[in-house]
Amino acid sequence: YESQKFPLESEDSVLSSTLKQFSTYLDDISSVQQVLAQQFSETMMYPLSKFLQADIEEISTMSEMFQQASHDHEQSLGKYMKQPMKKDDRSRVEVNDELFANRKKFHQTTLHYYSSLNALQYKRKCFLLEPVIGYLYAQRACIQ
Question: Where is the BAR domain (predicted)?
Answer without folding.
Answer: 10-139
